[in-house]
Amino acid sequence: VGLYVCGPTVYNDVHLGNVRTFCSFDMIYRYLVHSGYKVRYVRNITDAGHLTNERGEGVNRMESQARLESLEPMEVVQKYTTGFHEICRLFNLRPPTIEPTATGHILEQISMIETLIEKGFAYVMHGSVYFDVSAYNKQYGYGVLSGRNIDELMAGYRDLDGQEEKRNPIDFALWKAATPEHIMQWRSPWGQGFPGWHLECSVMSTKYLGEAFDIHGGGMDLKFPHHECEIAQNVGACGKAPVRYWMHANMLNFNGQKMSKSLGNSILPMEFITGNHPLLD
User: Fold this and answer.
1) Are residues 130 and 160 in contact, defined by beta-carbon separation less than 8 angstroms?
2) Tens-digit pLDDT profile for residues 81-137
3) In sequence order, which residues have a C-beta less than 8 Å from that of residue 92 and are 6 or more positions away?
4) Could you count the other beta carbons within 10 Å of the beta carbon of residue 117?
5) Distance between CA atoms of 111 and 109, rounded to whole angstroms?
């Protein structure tokens, strides 16, 4: 059984909602092994410092955190990756079979982009590369996982930074051109830049589990746009649906509300264990 789960973006501490997702898939992993299956469990580490709003643009959280803590971005990566592994041990989660990193697969990401350009599903604009959602939709249909309607998406997207470069507002970044002050950047056929958010999982799941595998998991909040964009990238590059079963852990609620930092009800794993949080009286 091939099992791929979207792992943490390592620019700050994982919160209890993240842990809930990883606990859920740890249980699934254990059950499959218990049932006699040989399981290859792949859980990635997002450490490329890409832009992480819903369209793969906006604020670069890895670099923002590095500046806030006066650290190199890879120091931030190491600090929070170590912290994540400590939390996994604390909650007795089994380690995955393979734990690849986004920065360790830049060449493969560039290769998939080149394939998508060659097949007419991506285009270059001022050193950035965007996925052409309309071109893909005409051939395969975009929105198969989330049920989103492409016309409604086109009408609903607000103006975003860099959108004037795109053919359509719903196109998403595969590769972004880097400004000189951008710390994490790599050489590519389109100039210095860095990969988009959605690309890394398509590349790493394909590399370690093949062009079609059994289960892809993550939090419910990743269903759209992240997993929807993954499907488009994989189908566009490989010509086939990448996943047999999509599984999503629901959001963790506290007193009937979704956990979020803005509401002040986001709890860190150690706060949950020690009870050292204002809401855990």
Assistant:
1) no
2) 999 999 999 999 999 999 999 999 999 999 999 999 999 999 999 999 999 999 999
3) none
4) 18
5) 5
Answer whether 80's CB lies under 8 Å from 11's CB: yes
Look at the block and give the residue holding tokens 């400004």: 179
Cβ count within 10 A of residue 47: 25
DSSP 51: B
Q: Which helix (H) or strand (E) holds 179?
A: none
Query: Considering the entire predicted model, what is its pTM?
Result: 0.90
Helix and strand numbers (H, E) in the chain are 9, 10
- What is the Cα 229 distance to its own chain's centre? 10
Extended strands (E) in the chain: 2-5, 40-43, 122-125, 128-131, 172-177, 193-195, 213-219, 243-249, 253-254, 257-258
Instruction: Identify the burial level of 187 via C-beta atoms within 10 angstroms of its C-beta, where 0-12 means exposed, 13-18 middle and 19 or more buried.
Output: exposed
- The tokens 């860099």 sit on which residue? 162
Q: CA 197 to CA 7: how far, in whole Å?
A: 12
Residue 60 near residue 50, CB atoms below 8 Å:
yes
Render pLDDT for 5-54 as a digit per residue (tens, 0 to 9).
Answer: 999 988 888 889 999 999 999 999 999 999 999 999 999 999 986 544 44
